Amino acid sequence: MKILVIGGGMGGTIFANHLARRLPHEMKTGKTQITMLSANHQHIYQPGWLYVAMGRATPDELVREQASLLEPGIEFHVDPVEEFHLAENHVKCKSGKVYEYDLIVISTGSRPTPETIPGLRENSIHCYTADDALNFFRQLSAFKGGRIVITVGLPHKCPMIPLEITFAMHDFIKDRGLLDKTEFYYTYPIGRVHSLENVAKWAAPEFDRMGIRYETFFNMKEVDGKNAAVLSEEGAAVKYDLLVAVPPHKGQEVIEKNGLGENGWIPTHRNSLHMEGEYGKNVLVLGDTTNIPISKAGSTAHYEAEVAAENVAALIKIGCPVREYDGKVFCFIEAGKDRATYASFNYQTPPQPKAPTGAVHAFKMAYNQLYWATARGLL
Amino acid sequence: MSTQRVVDARGSFCPGPLMELISNMKMMAVGDVLELLSTDAGSAADVPEWIKKVGHTMINTEQDAEGTWHIRVRKEK
C-alpha cells in the first residue's frame, strides 16, 4: 500500500513515524511505502515561539532537520504539493513530479493572517512565526510604559496563547520594573475571558488579582493606526500604546486553491478523521487542517495522528480500523514565567484545570525538549 | 439568493459553539443563514447576546428531543 503524507509538521510526522513503527515487516518487504512531502526541510516546535517572544529561547533551538526525525524507510521530499487530484489518487508537486497513492494523509497546518484585519499587520505584534516572535521580544523590551492591549482573532491556533501571552508579558514587565507604569487590557471574542468555561473561571479572578483589565464580546474589526485604537464588530474602540494580536488564521492556500476547503479548512469527520465527501474514503486529515470544531493545537494533531496511524496499520494488517478519535486535547497553560497548569478534555468531558504550580511549569519546560521524542513517535 | 450552512458544534468545548459561529459568520455573505448545533446549554443565551450586540438577526432557537440546541441566525452586515 502506498501511503502519502502531505505536511511535515506535528500531525504528519507523528502519523508517519507511528505507522512505520507498527509496520516494520511491511516496510522492510516493500508491502507498505510511506512517502512524506513537505514545503520545509525543517521541523519547527511552534509552541516554543512564546518563549522566544519573552527572550527565553532563540529560534534555532526550536528546529530540527525533518529527515532526522523520520523512521528509516520513510521517503521524504521537500516538494510542496500544488495540485490535489483526489479522484485519480495522485498529487502534483512544484517540481512537476506526480506522486500516486492508495491513501493520502493531509496535515498541512494553518497560518496567521493578520492582513485580513485592516491595519492589524502594521500596527501590532504577535508571536506566530520566528521573526515575529523575535520582533515581539524587541518591542516588549523597548516598551517604556502605557497600555498594552491584547486582541484576539478567530479562528486561531494554540487556544491558550491569549492567556499565556498576557501572563508572560505581565511577569516580563514586572521584572523590568515597569508594572506601575503599565496597564494590561485584555479583550476576548465571547462573553468570558476564554473559550473553555472552567479555564475562564480560573483566569478571570487571576486577572482581577493582577490588575489586568478585560473586555469580553470584543471581535476586532480593524485597527486605526493613526489614532492607536482597535475597533470591534460590537462597536467598541480601545486605545493602545502597544497592540498584541492573536491574529485570525487560515489553512494553507493550496488547500483552498484546490477546492478542498473554505479558508483552507478541510471538512473532516470528527471521529474517523476521514475527509467528508465522495473522495474521503482514502483521505485522512489531521491537525489544524481539519474543520472539526476542536482546538487547533499541537496536542490535537498528536492524538489524531496516533489514532490515524493505529487505524491505518490495522487496515493493512486485519482489514479494518480499530478505534475512533474521541476529541482528546491536552494543553499546558503557562501562567507566567514560573508556574503553569493544564487543560485536558475530549468531546464528552470538559477540562477541570487546577491552580498553577511550579511543578507543572517545570514539566512543560521539560516537555519542550521531550517533544522531539513525540515527533519521532516514541512518546 | 441566501445560502444556509449548518455548523455542528456538538461536544465542542474549545473553541466552543459561539466561537465556531463567529468564525463561520466571517466566511458568509450578508443574508446567509447559519444553523448552529450545540449541546452546550449556555449557547442558547450567549449566541443571542452576541448576535444582538453585533446587529445580526436571531431567527429562532429550539431544543430537540436529544437535547441538542438548534440556533438559527442570519448575517446582516
Automatic annotation (TrEMBL), chain A:
Transmembrane segments: none annotated. PANTHER family: FAD-DEPENDENT PYRIDINE NUCLEOTIDE-DISULPHIDE OXIDOREDUCTASE (PTHR43755:SF1), PTHR43755. It comes from the Bacteria. It comes from Acidithiobacillus ferrivorans. This is FAD-dependent pyridine nucleotide-disulfide oxidoreductase. InterPro entries: FAD/NAD-bd_sf, FAD/NAD-binding_dom, SQRD. Residues 1-268 form the FAD/NAD(P)-binding domain. GO terms for molecular function: oxidoreductase activity.
UniProtKB/TrEMBL annotation, chain B:
Residues 7-31 form the UPF0033 domain. InterPro entries: TusA-like, TusA-like_sf. Coiled coil: none annotated. Pfam families: TusA (PF01206). Signal peptide: none annotated. Transmembrane segments: none annotated. Belongs to the sulfur carrier protein TusA family. PANTHER family: SULFUR CARRIER PROTEIN TUSA, SULFUR CARRIER PROTEIN YEDF-RELATED. This is SirA-like domain-containing protein. It comes from Acidithiobacillus ferrivorans SS3.
